[in-house]
Amino acid sequence: MAKEIEKKFLVNSTSYREASTARHIIIQGYLNRDKDATVRVRILDDKAYLTIKGRNRGIIRDEWEYPIPVADARDMLERCARGTVIEKTRYIVPYGNLCWEVDEFRGKHSGLVLAEIELPDETTAFNLPDFIGKEVSGDPRYYNSNL
């Protein structure tokens, strides 16, 4: 079992696009959105994953992720997803010793842009790039499972 230690921020400019080193297309939906066990299906470019996440404890939570066939992921998203299936473009932006993931949402959430940084430890210090705005780490309105 892995631990996800993540902070999330609103984005206030598009400067991340020029600084990015990779871009991915993501389609994801939730089979379960319970606070104690969120179950997500994600297609990332040409790969797919089933991810189970435990309850947030501050910025830390348990996470299990398994590769699955893309065809199965498409079927799950079509037949089993609850709520909106999210579509977004993810930009990978190295900054300092860490990488930021910046998500531009499409469809129902078009215009929303969020940046996340995964930390090796909750006490890890990091610098904010110029495109980072307000922190929304603990705000459930910005959890993907609630969008």
Task: Provide key terms for this protein.
147 residues; mainly beta; eight-stranded antiparallel β-barrel; globular
Overview of the molecule:
- The chain is mainly β and 147 residues long.
- 10% of the residues lie in helices and 54% in strands.
- It contains 2 helices and 9 strands; from the N terminus they run E-H-E-E-E-E-H-E-E-E-E.
- The relative contact order is 0.28.
- The model has no long low-confidence stretch (mean pLDDT 95).
The largest pleated sheet is described as: 8 strands, antiparallel, barrel
Overall morphology: globular
Run of helices and strands: EHEEEEHEEEE
- Amino-to-carboxy terminus distance: 26 Å
Can you list the strand order of the major beta sheet? 1-5-4-3-2-6-7-8
Question: Helix share of residues?
Answer: 10-25%
Radius of gyration: 15 Å
Question: Helix- and strand-based class?
Answer: mainly beta
Q: Number of helical runs? A: 2
Provide the residue-averaged pLDDT: 95
Poorly predicted regions = none
Total number of β-strand segments? 9
Strand portion: over 45%
Summarize the structure.
With 147 residues, the protein is mostly beta strands.
